[in-house]
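Section 5.1 Outputs to date
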Amino acid sequence: MLGNDIVDYHIDEKKYQKPRFTQRILTPQEQQYLAQSNDPNGFLWSLWAAKEASYKALQRNRQQLTFSPVSLSLTEPTLKQLLTHTSRQPLTGQARFEHHSIDLKFYRPEPTVVHCIALLQGAGQWCHIDQQIAHVPHLHKYKQQARAVRICAQKLLQRHHIHADIIRPTLAMNDYEKPGPPILIDGQTKQTLPHIISLSHDHNYVAVALYYASFSLK
């Protein structure tokens, strides 16, 4: 299963200095590596993007799963690599959740932007993943961001000759409802397509990841 998250952290420059926040989202080992980083802000938000992307991938199989960042942990080799990841070259890593291993790929499209794609039990499937990232100025409201990311997604779908509507079915949680992971619906047959799409946005950046093979990840 697939998830992605993008973070533009140029506004949140001091969150890494707030122990109440870092202890709530990072494991003790991750906190130790944060203290070693020469770019603690970038390191912190790289971990956040990885945990968000991993959660989105996991939620496709476990729709009632709630987001608990500290329950998702990045492996030590991944943490070591992230200490020095500042270039635009992608970096691969892994996260753990219970008995699950989640494969990660990090991108740095801009100095204060990190994008992470997560694949659950899909290490051999990276060749079937494509992504689209866009900077869209003046996105001040959530609805504007949601519209912009869907426009970005349609461009990515068109690149792979996939004609579909993007739907987010409503999930009934314990005591509330929320939109679930997006699915692709064929505009003519109204059938659910096997391709998997993941949407993300933050400030003026939007990102889409697409698994475009003819069968779905298990």
